[in-house]
Amino acid sequence: MGKSTWIIIGLILYFIGGWIAKDILLSAKVTENTTLGEVTFYECLTYSIIAAIFSLVASSYSPNKNEDPKGFIWLVAITIVTILIKEMPLSVGLIALYNIVNIAAIILSVSTNKNIK
Fold it and tell me: Under 8 Å CB-to-CB from 53, ≥6 apart: which residues?
């Protein structure tokens, strides 16, 4: 599989897998006392977990199992942005920036892996 195939699979998993996982999580977590900030945080957390798992798999993919995995910086970036989402005031720009960071992490984790041709 080429890099573009990996990226397309990653984006499909991010949007569709995140949508399904978010719906499952919110159906179990939302009560009448849940605030909009908490709902947004759960949504962002769900998408970041999907992006982090794919970035981890894509950055550590190696047909030769003896190589050290590289590219864990994307996992760290997603974690930092998720923590910042909880602390910053809610805005449309913040959600857009958050999604851009997740999508960039997916694309860059595939692009920087020299084992994916």
Answer: none
